[in-house]
Structure formats: structure tokens, C-alpha cells
Amino acid sequence: MVAEGDILLPPDGDREWLLGALAELVRACGPAPLLVAPLIAGDARFFPDPWAGGKASVRRLLRRLLGYAGIDADTVEVEVYGADDERARVGRPSGNLAGVSDLWLVEARGATLRFAVEGTLLADPEAVVAAAARAVADAFRSLRSLRVRDATEEQRRIDVTAVYLGFGRLTVDAAHRYASGRPRPSRQGLLSPKAVAFLLGAVIVARELDARALKAIAGGLQANQRAFVRRSVEILEEERPPLAERLGLPPRDAWPEAPSLAELTAPFADEEPGASVEASEAVEDRGIVGTNLGKPVFRVERRAGLRIAKVAVMAAVMLGGLATRPQMGEVLTMGQVAIGAVILGVAGLLLGSLIRESRCSEPKCGAPLRPEMTQCPRCGGTIMGSIRHPRERLAAEEALQRDAGA
Length: 406
Fold this sequence. Notes:
It is a single chain. With 406 residues, the chain is mostly helical. 45% of the residues lie in helices and 10% in strands. The chain is built from 15 helices and 6 strands. The strands form 2 sheets. Strands 1-3-2 form a 3-stranded mixed sheet, with helices on one face. A 3-stranded mixed sheet has the order 5-4-6, covered by helices on one side. It is globular and about 80 Å long. It starts with 11 loop residues before the first helix and ends with a helix. The relative contact order is 0.13.
């Protein structure tokens, strides 16, 4: 029995929806990923490839995750965008909250996959791995023709698919994570930490893992997520009918053979020891850190009202949309959601008008700058003044050159 209001579990309706979505994946794609795929953690056992924080590093990471997902891709392309680059809107999942899809699938066409990433994410490798896992789950759904029309619903199902593919240890922490040096938590995905933890608990129970394996998995998570997973396992082991029956899983003696981790982590054929590396790729792999040493950059100063208002409105619309879904229990009308979105948007606009932001003008950097800084802490550029938008940086650089030549 589940105690009413158990704070370590998602609500009843959410749990039913989560298990139903997991069962749909089993029916559509088979039980193998859920039962025998490696449960990926963000360490060298699963990601032996070098990481330098650039485009080539992201490409290697995606190729590794695609292999874990059983996706054969001849070409994997990655584009890095600046925080204010309007081109980043093209192909980005519609209706996402800030931070939900900082690395996303642009296109899956046969054996060619195109991804994009916001450059500011590259300073946090752990967040990159979790975001890449979601992007690969998106590619899996696209290639298997699993996508649904509703954008919010699809983003939630991407979160479920990531756990189904063995990426739950990555995404459960990323659903709500405090990173070093950040005053506020970051997030990847739309499902709550409790929901992702419940799915990970379902994987543990479905695989009939023992207490030692549970300890090894949960021990590597943040404290809250650890508690959510443990409680989810307790409940799912007690529920009837058994979870295997609810998910449509075969008996243990009929499980498929587990893939070889040694084969999945083997060097890529074109990057084996001794293989040549193109100079262009070496430059790509430098990332943004230190690339502007000795070069001028500018403070982009603006008020935070519009950004905060957009986030508040999108949050209200998305959360309100969930609250009106039958499987979650209808508690709000769309009219109430619209009114709430307007109120939050206006409040965000007014509050944000009192807050000034200062960021680096380099499109692929966008690091926050404190008033006393004379050098960007990420790209290393020398701060030479203030502008209102990154698009003004080239004109500002030309003005500096004219002044220097005068």
C-alpha cells in the first residue's frame, strides 16, 4: 500500500501514466533496452573518449550514446550556437522551457543525424552528457516513428525513452541539479526528479536487481534522487499485479543477451590510437574556454524583464497543460491557465525590469560578467566596454580599431 501523499513518489495518476508510457515502448520496440542495456553513468567506464569542451567532443559523446541506443549513424553533425543566436531557434523543440533542451536533435534523416548545442552548456560536462542522452532518445523516437504531435507530450515521452534506453542514471540527476558555481539549480527535461526516479526504480525492479546493485546505482545520485529511487523500488516490488506483467516483459529465461560493454566502449574506427586527427577538428575541440585571450569582448547589458517574463509564461502554459490532461487528473481549465500565464508574464516583466544582466558578447560564450571584471572568465576576452546586443559587437570592434588608428 502507498501512503496517501507519499512525498517521495509522484502522484498516483502520474505513476500510472509513466508505467503506461514505458509499457508502450516495450510493445513498440521490444524489452531488450529496458532489461539488458547498460545502465549508463557519466564516468570513464562508459565514456572513455577525450573531452575538451568543443564541437568534436560533443560529436564523440553523441556517437557513444547512439551506440548504446543501438542507432547506426554514418554521419553525426553538431552545430554550436551562442546564447543569443537567433539561428538556434531553427529545429529547437517548440515550447521548451529554458534549459530543457540545451542540446537537441535538429534532424534525423536516414543514417545522417544533425544536432545542435547552446555553447554556454559546454562549460558543464555533466549537464552536456544528460542533455545529449535526451537528444539521442529523441533521435531514437524519430527513427522509430514514435513521435506524437503534442510538443509538450513528446518532450515528456523523450524523458521516458531516455530511461528505457538505459540513460536513467544520467537524466534523474539532471532533472534538478545544483552545479558548482551556480546559485540556482539547472534542469534537463520536463519530467520531475520524482517521475524520472520512479522510472529508474521501475527499471531496477524489472531487472530483478539485488540490494547491492541498488546501492551501487542509488549511491551515485544526489541525496533527494537517491531517496526517490529507493522508495520507488520499495513500492514497485510490493505492487500487484507484478511490474513485469504490467510492462509486458518476458520471463527471465527468455531475456535477450546483454550487449558487450567492451564492444560498446571500443575506440571509434576513425579515432583509434595512432589515427590522424584533422587540424580543423583539433580546433573544434578546444571549445570556447580561452579562445579570446588578448581579443576584445564587450558587456551585453540589458534588463532581465523580457527573459523572465518568457520563462514565466512558458512555465505556466506547460505546467497548466499538464494539469488539464486526463491522465493527470483535470484540476484546471485552459481559461484559468491562460489567466495565470498572463499574470505571471506581467509579474516577470515588472520584476525583471528592476534586474540588470551583464553577459559576454561572444555568441558562443555568453558567460555572466560581474561589474568588477575586466576579463571574461570563460573565453578570456578583454572587456572593452558595453553594448546592448551581441549583434553590435562587430561595429564596436571596428570603432575600437578606428580609435586605435587615430
